[in-house]
Design a protein that fits this description.
- The chain is α+β, with helices and mostly antiparallel strands.
- It has one domain.
- The chain has a 7-stranded mixed β-sheet with strand order 3-2-1-4-5-6-7.
- A hairpin with a 5-residue loop joins β4 and β5.
- α4 packs antiparallel against α5.
Amino acid sequence: MGHRALVAYGRADGTYSLHHSQWGALGFALCDDLGPDSPFGADADWEEPAHEAVVAGERPAVPETHDAPVDPEPRGSIPSLGALPARFDFLEYEAAFVVSRTGDVRAFQPCWFARALDDAEPVGDGALVSVRRGRDPVSDAARVSTWFRGVADTVRVLCECGTLDRDDAREHLRTRLREWAAEGRTVLLPP
């Protein structure tokens, strides 16, 4: 199984390369494991040149056997950071990370709309809310997750009572999630 994370690496042309991490969501470990000197978390000589290749939009040269927490081989790409939620599989991944071209790492807590809506799709039907820097990422992500459960459960009851239809419920979830931006967080929602 694992605690899978989707990792988006910024590229020089403004696009992002998408990568898989089997255990990266466990304790938001990638917040500590990744950085400018170890962009894939292996603390190996091949990483910086491989990261430079990813930033340039090229295929990285990677040893056949490596123990990097993030697979350096891309699994796709997105045209902008705003496109990440539309490609995020809320069933497969428990966290998202964004690595800048310089190796700066940001973590995101997923909030899948299926908690409130039975017709929510696994891919793209939810939001990603950034975890605050300088705080314990696990407890901060739990704060976002707990808040979202309360909002989603309320929306579900309002739908079941007929107070909200599915479109209004989805828009209510989107509106409430945008409130996290007031704390200086990045909130990514699909278009």
